[in-house]
DNA sequence: CCCACTTTGTGCACCGGTTCACAAAGGGAC
DNA sequence: GTCCCTTTGTGAACCGGTGCACAAAGTGGG
């Protein structure tokens, strides 16, 4: 991949920084609503739950948008971060799978607020097709490719059972989509150039359980040598 | 914090490894269902979507459970990972906030499957309290502390609007809960020793949008020097 | 204009995590 | 028992990201 860019400033923003920009944006929007004109890195960092040095380094990757001795202009910084994240344009999102989760996502206000527009709902169940949810009519998943093209969908949210996810991912990718948010509990195989993000409720709970166990173990005096495969269990 | 453990093997499992163990577990369960007795690090790594060296190093933190020249015993490894994650015990989970998302979570099968049991649903809306969802009756959030104690809840899922989340977090922590899965779009402040995990749909979409913009920019020849605050916008 | 004060932007040391590459260990054939 | 093949477990180099600490830059008061 060629790395030559016309900009003098190299535009390689670290992934970890990108993941935090939405956090800063949210904190800044709260501040703008409360009428603050400027904010220091220290205050913004506290509001976003990070340390101030990290915040300053993150922002420095976008450019030099602060004023020493003063801080950052709230509105200006909101604009710069929004632009960097691509939220100044509007993104058509299709939700595939209109079960409990798909419905929740369709009705979730947080989507619409910032540049995202739910443009289509699709499902395979004839029982569900035709339902009206969040101002949209559920379409049959057979129409997937046509809908993606017609509505200029660029981001697809997969909220289907695990078994269907890979096949659907293949189809949306074939239809030209390169950004997928996957809620199905499977590891999707995708070609180079396609971005997948995964949200897995069950994994999050398991991570919590690990730490919870660790905490209670500590109080009750450790795992009591339970290192071995118990006799009772059958290999 | 005292770091003396009776075990010879130091039990400090890296956070990154903990986050992948559920992935391995899922892949292994699939293999067990298909009747595989043993699996090599290479095959398991492919199924989990990681590289095999990483997989082996991850598993080595749990102990030396493989056989050189052969691979890992599927059932045995399932047991070891489950035990490490604390899934051999059952965890009572309370879901606070029974809106669209809370309902979806309550009905989500993936919870129950592995050691987790939804033990309570709570909401502030009198309209919702008393509803029967997934075999449970929604209780009023005033009962929060009593319910946590009575049902021995150790993990709380917050699926409320952002405005209510911090206050509710404070209450569940005061009631003795130290593991929280937060879906509300706010940064929660919590004391030392409390584990928070956050799932934020809007942030995931924004990260996708960033990369999507980057990809389309590349095709259309870059951001065309759009570095400056446009004249039209009012500071 | 100059000085004291505030706050940004960043060089640098550090740290956790990833990857490579290989020695060690076990299995199976003969 | 010996040899060859497979696959694990891990030392070591590497890499991205974090946090400290400070110089540079700007503000406001006198």
Would you kindly provide a written description of the structure presented here, covering whatever features stand out?
Two copies of one chain form a homodimer. Helix content of chain A is 43%, strand content 17%. By secondary structure, chain A is α/β, with parallel strands linked by helices. Chain A folds into two domains: 15-85, Orthogonal Bundle (Arc Repressor Mutant, subunit A), CATH 1.10.10; 91-201, NAD(P)-binding Rossmann-like Domain (Rossmann fold). In chain A, α1 runs antiparallel to α4 (74-85). Chain A is globular, with a radius of gyration of 23 Å. The N and C termini of chain A lie far apart (49 Å). Mean pLDDT of chain A is 89; it is low at 1-9, 223-229 and 231-235. Chains A and B meet through α1, α4, α5, α6 and β9 of A and α1, α4, α5, α6 and β9 of B. Chain A binds a DNA duplex (30 and 30 nucleotides) through residues 14-17, 40-42, 51, 53-54, 56-57, 59-60, 64, 66-72.
Task: Jot down its keywords.
Rossmann fold; alpha/beta; disordered C terminus; DNA-binding; Arc Repressor Mutant, subunit A; 7-stranded mixed beta sheet; disordered N terminus; 235 residues; homodimer; globular
Kindly summarize this structure in a few lines.
Chains A, B: GO terms for molecular function: DNA binding; DNA-binding transcription factor activity. The structure is a homodimer of 235-residue chains. Chain A is α/β, with parallel strands linked by helices and 235 residues long.
């Amino acid at each position: 991949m060629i790395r030559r860019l016309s900009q003098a400033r190299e535009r390689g923003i670290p992934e970890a920084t990108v993941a935090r920009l939405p956090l800063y944006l949210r904190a800044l929007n709260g501040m703008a609503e409360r009428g603050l004109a400027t904010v220091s890195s220290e205050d913004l960092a506290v509001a976003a739950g990070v340390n101030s040095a990290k915040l300053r380094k993150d922002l420095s990757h976008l450019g030099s948008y602060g004023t020493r001795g003063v801080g950052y202009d709230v509105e200006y910084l909101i604009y710069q971060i929004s632009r960097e994240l691509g939220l100044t344009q509007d993104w058509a999102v299709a939700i595939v799978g209109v079960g409990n989760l798909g419905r929740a996502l369709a009705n979730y206000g947080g989507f619409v607020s910032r540049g995202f527009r739910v443009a289509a709902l699709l499902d395979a169940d004839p029982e569900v097709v035709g339902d009206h949810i969040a101002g949209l009519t559920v379409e049959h998943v057979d129409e997937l490719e046509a809908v993606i093209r017609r509505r200029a969908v660029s981001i697809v949210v997969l909220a289907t059972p695990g078994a269907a996810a890979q096949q659907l991912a293949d189809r949306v990718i074939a239809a030209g989509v390169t950004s997928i948010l996957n809620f199905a509990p499977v590891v999707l195989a995708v070609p180079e150039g396609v971005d997948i993000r995964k949200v897995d409720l069950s994994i999050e709970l398991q991570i919590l359980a690990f730490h919870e166990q660790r905490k209670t173990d500590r109080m009750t005096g450790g795992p009591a040598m339970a290192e071995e495969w118990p006799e009772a269990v059958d290999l």
